[in-house]
Amino acid sequence: MSATALKPDAQPELTVRIKRLAHGKDLDLPRYETALAAGCDVRAAVTEPVTVKPGERFMTPTGIAIAMPPGWEAQMRPRSGLAAKHGISCVNAPGTIDADYRGELRVILINHGTEDFVINRGDRIGQMVFAPVFQAVFEEVDELDETTRGSGGFGSTGK
Predict the structure, then answer these.
(1) What does it catalyze (predicted)?
(2) Does residue 145 have a known ligand-binding role?
(3) Contact 24, 45 (CB under 8 A)
């Protein structure tokens, strides 16, 4: 079967419990804008327009809290349209929302553009992607195995 023949109903299902907070009651819940979208859009739950000046950050409320099953995380990512059109991104992209966090989801937006950016109530401000999580078991050793690369990093491959 080709990749284009896959249907959304063939994907594994993940149930995420969601709670609307008082200041988000009238807003749309996160939703996927296309059938095969990886991220679902989240909206700004600001009570009045907020202006983010170039170089400034704003921790944008979403008016929702979520609960995921153990072994999963949500990643908050920038929306490509905001980045391309206005220079708006997320400071800690992707931001991790752990399975045991129950507080309000917030999106830390930064204005990398040259003009003020206004966040209005209900604006789509980020996209949330869900991913499995594996916790490592650490084994302390005296030596690590050798590789061709060794300890080279930060441009050591010439690229």
Answers:
(1) dUTP + H2O = dUMP + diphosphate + H(+)
(2) no
(3) yes
**Which whole number is the average pLDDT over 57-77?**
97
Q: Would the annotation count 77 as a binding residue?
A: no
- Residue 83, classed as helix, strand or coil, is helix
Can you tell me the mean pLDDT for 98-118?
98
The two three-digit tokens of residue 63, written as one number: 């008016």
Q: Which sign, positive or negative, has the C-alpha torsion 135, 37, 49, 104?
A: negative
User: What's the distance, CA 36 to chain centroid?
Assistant: 17
Q: Is 4 annotated as a binding residue?
A: no
Element at 17 (helix H, strand E)? strand 17-20
Predicted TM-score (pTM) of the model is 0.84
pLDDT tens-digit readout, 2-26: 444 455 566 668 999 999 999 999 9
Beta strands in 37-123 (DSSP E): 40-43, 50-52, 57-61, 64-67, 72-77, 88-90, 95-97, 106-111, 117-119
Residue from 14, 77, 5 nearest 41 by CA: 77
Q: Is 98 annotated as a binding residue?
A: yes
Q: Residue 157 above 90 pLDDT? A: no
| Amino acid letter for position 87 | G
State yes or no: 97 annotated in a binding site: yes
